[in-house]
């Protein structure tokens, strides 16, 4: 069983582009997919949950985990990368769950999201929940804590995403779905395996200077200034720092998708990720376990999976 049938309900995936419907073919270049070459409704029409994360390897691991959790695994087959033919992004699917990598940073995730939103739109998907399962640096939190983002803020702690479009600054809102964040918190309590909290996430333009690190190739501020900045961030309600959440929140909201970011943590005590690979891997699996539990619970609620 690799696909599931649902009642058609109400929330489509919206695009806001009058030119799209006039195009005879829409080539999703960075996915190596297209409306002429692929039957997108047949391939993706049953998608209800999309999970995105930075690394292709982690997103493959996630789909294997989900297949086992949902009892949808096929012992004879591997999970093929649907975007084989391009090495920009990787995409995997099992039943109603799609897992897509986004690379590092705002330009990389926003390019992926344009094509992902069009893909879900062309496939006529409805009622889609999209969740970023990623890593982040925490501010004064125990490493391994999972932070579910309530609001994403920029490097000045403001809840907005600014982009230059045709040379003009366009400002978009970065609120995430608080109801979904609360549902994830309840899931974490039911799981009882690690600490999860809801908080604000700061999104920066790079890993080093943008996050006040002292270990980049350039550092033109002092350690004292770094700590002052992180303390100010904490005071402004920032729990953790990563590199994609503002544009993720802005774009998914425009499309009527339900969004939240579940991330991991460390920081304040140092800049380098010094935990062993095994420990980091364990931390990175936590958002996957949390979101996996949430998806399974939702599918049971819909009567798609047996209780
Ligand atoms: C978290 O980790 C990555 C940088 O190491 C980046 O994609 C992010 O947001
Ligand atoms: N990802 C980030 O962007 N920052 C960190 O400190 C860790 C992961």
Structural write-up:
By secondary structure, the chain is of the alpha/beta class. The protein folds into two domains: 116 residues, Rossmann fold, CATH 3.40.50; 175 residues, Nucleoside phosphorylase domain (Rossmann fold, 3-Layer(aba) Sandwich). It is 32% helix and 21% strand. It is built from seven helices and 13 strands. The strands form three sheets. It has a nine-stranded mixed β-sheet with strand order 4-5-3-6-13-8-11-12-7, with helices on both faces. Strands 1-2 form a two-stranded antiparallel sheet. Strands 9-10 form a two-stranded antiparallel ribbon. Helix 2 packs across helix 7. Bound molecules: 1,4-anhydro-D-erythro-pent-1-enitol and uracil. The site of 1,4-anhydro-D-erythro-pent-1-enitol (R2B) has 9 residues, from loops. The site of uracil has 9 residues, from strand 12.
Could you write a compact summary of the structure shown?
With 307 residues, the protein is α/β, with parallel strands linked by helices. The protein has helices at residues 40-44, 56-70, 106-122, 178-191, 223-235, 245-254, 277-301; strands at 27-28, 33-34, 49-53, 91-94, 97-101, 129-134, 137-138, 146-153, 160-165, 168-173, 196-203, 238-242, 258-263.
